[in-house]
Amino acid sequence: MRDLNTSAEATKPKGTRRIGNVDTESRKLLLRAAEELMREEGYAQVTSRKLASRAGLKPQSVHYYFRTMDDLFEELFNQAIQRQLAALDWVTQQPDPLVALFELTCDPTTAALQLEFLALANHRKRLQTLIREFGAELNAREAAILDQELRRRHIATAGFSPEQLATLFQTAARGLAFSGSFNSERFSSARDAVVAWLRSTFDQDGLAGNR
Fold first, then answer.
1. Which end of the chain, N or C, is more open, meaning fewer C-beta atoms within 10 Å of its C-beta?
2. Using an 8 Å Cβ cutoff, are 102 and 194 in contact?
3. Domain 70-210 has CATH 2.10.25
4. Domain boundaries, the chain
């Protein structure tokens, strides 16, 4: 996979590179604070002053490590993508990858951050391009997992392509995840019901009902 930093650097105008060391603890604190603010209050509340305050740093430190807020948001998106890709690798190692993929995809915390990035991208074209590019890669990875599992279990796909199945799977799981922001009790109940259905309907060799 092509790293987001490489893609982002190629589209940046001259003079917008970071000037602080990328491995310092202060920079990590700023990124952590930015993610917390996005999840708790929304991307519009991610300002240099609020970031510095939450991270326990001076306001000028934000633009020392990130010359523009776009740079910060793109790095934050890169971190989220890398976590998601690592999580998909983890899914393939689980006893039941279908259940693991569903539980990963419908995680409310991840969904909340994704929603903020989508809203933010409406105002930042470069981020919009990156989301499209790496969203397509995530879809392809999830499609490959679904395709492998359904083939292994000898489950017919009724003419749907792996990519179409992945899109339907994502839509259902992430829609459920978004609902968790409004009613956590109903979300938990619905998630548990879907997991139970997946386990009872699809066993490791195929459709349980057809055996």
1. C
2. yes
3. no
4. 18-66, 70-210
Q: What share of the chain is helix, strand, coil (3-state, %, to 5)?
A: 75, 0, 25
Long-range contacts of 86-91, Cβ-Cβ distance < 8 Å, separation of 24 or more: 88/138, 88/141, 88/142, 88/145, 91/145
Find, among 92, 117, 95, the residue nearest to 38 by Cα. Answer: 117
* pTM of this structure: 0.79
Closest CA to 91 of 46, 22, 149: 149
3-state secondary structure of 167: helix
Tokens describing residue 51: 């970031």
What is the CATH code of the structural domain delimited by 18-66? Answer: 1.10.10.60
pLDDT in tens, the chain (211 residues): 445 454 445 445 445 444 666 668 999 999 999 999 999 999 999 999 999 999 999 989 999 999 899 999 999 999 999 999 999 999 999 999 999 999 999 998 888 898 899 999 998 989 999 999 888 888 899 999 999 999 988 888 888 999 999 999 989 998 888 887 777 888 899 999 999 998 888 765 544 444 4
Measured distance CA(192)–CA(155) in Å, rounded: 23
C-alpha span between 180 and 163 (Å, rounded): 26
**Whether the Cβ atoms of residue 71 and residue 1 lie closer than 8 Å to each other:** no
What distance lies between CA 170 and its chain's CA centroid? 11
